[in-house]
C-alpha cells in the first residue's frame, strides 16, 4: 500500500442499498455497528461525530450525500490523535446494487502513514459489524 494511496475496503451486504444507506446517516442506526455515542447531521457541512470506544472520538463533517448510493465525509480525531485532527482525512463510501444486495466500497484518503494499518484493520472490523446488523444478525 503506497503512502499516498487510500485505504480501500469492500464488503457485500445481503440487503439492498436503500436498507444499508441509513446505517451511514442515521445516528440510531450507526450506533448499532460503530461507537458508544454517535451524533450525525446528514447534510453537506453537517457534523459526523462518533465516540468510538469511550476514549477516542472521531469528528468531521459530511461533504456529499447521494441517497442510497454515496456518502463522503471528513474524519479525524478530537485531541489530534496521532497528528490526525478532526476533519483532516476524507472517507468515501459507495453503495452498489449487486445480486440482490449491496457492494459497499470504502476509500479513506489522506491518512498519515503510521495510521494506515490501524484504520484498515478497524474499518474491516466495523464493516463486519455493519454487515451483520444490516442483514438482521446481532453483534456483540
Summary of the model, kept short:
With 140 residues, the chain is α+β, with helices and mostly antiparallel strands. The protein has helices at residues 17-20, 22-25, 27-30, 113-134; strands spanning 7-13, 37-40, 47-51, 57-66, 70-75, 89-98, 101-109.
Structure overview:
The chain has one domain (7-134): START domain (Alpha-D-Glucose-1,6-Bisphosphate, Chain A, domain 4, 2-Layer Sandwich), CATH 3.30.530.20. Helices cover 24% and strands 36% of the residues. The chain is built from four helices and seven strands. It has helices at 17-20, 22-25, 27-30, 113-134, and strands spanning 7-13, 37-40, 47-51, 57-66, 70-75, 89-98, 101-109. The chain has a seven-stranded antiparallel beta sheet with strand order 1-7-6-5-4-3-2.
